[in-house]
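Good morning N.,

You mentioned wanting to compare the apo and holo forms, so I went ahead and generated the holo version with zinc ion. This is what I fed in:
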Amino acid sequence: MSVPGCPRCTTPVARDGAGVWSCPEHGPVAPLWRAPEASYDAFAEHLVRAGEFPTYLPWPLSPGWSVTDVAAAGEEGAVRATMTGCSGTSDADGPVDVLVVTEEAGVGLGARVAGTRHADPGPGLGDGPPLATVRVEGQGVRLWTVSTSTEPGEWDRSVLAGEAGGRWLWVVLRPASAILLLRGEWILRDVSGLGAPLVDLPYGGPHPLW
Ligand SMILES: [Zn+2]
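and this is what came out, ligand included:
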C-alpha cells in the first residue's frame, strides 16, 4: 500500500509541489490506498486510515465467504471513500463477488469499481421504484439500478446505488444474476468502530476485478 493510485483510473498518483495528490488525467484526487491482498493486518491498517469514515461489509458474512478486497481514498483522518470486496459462492450463480463502496460526491471510486462512466451514479438515480432496500445501521436504504448497458467492457455485473448517511452507496454484484441475492433481508454493517473483534472474519483470495 506504499504507493497510492488514482481513485478514478489505474494511474499511480504523486504529490505536486503544493503537497496535493494529483493524477495526470484527473487532476487533484483523494489518493487511493488498496491493500495488495486482503488480510487481517491490511484491514486493521485500513480502519486506522479510515478513522470514523464508514466501511461497510455485508453482515453477517455467509459461511464460506471471505473478505477479498479493501481500499480507502484520502489521507488518514481525511478519507472520502472506502470500498470492500467479499467473495463466495451461491447455489444459483457459483462464484460471486460483492463490492460495496461508500463515498462523498465527486470522488469517483464507486464509478470505477462499477465500471460506469460518470463519477457519481448519475441524474437518473431515484427515478422509478428502487430495486432493493438494504439495512444500513438500522435504516432502510433504497438502491436503484445504475445502467451499465452503454459502457465499454462486457464484464457481467449488476450495479446499484443509493444514498446513506449523506454519501453515495454503491453495491456491485458479479455476475449480474447475483442481484437476486438482494431479494432477502440484506444488512450492511459499518465496521469502522469494530477494531480488534474484526479478527474473526475470514480474509484472502484473489481480488475481485475492477
Ligand atoms: Zn486518474
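Residues 6, 8-9, 11, 23, 25-26 surround zinc ion (CB under 6 Å).

Happy to go through it together on a call whenever suits you.

Best,
F.
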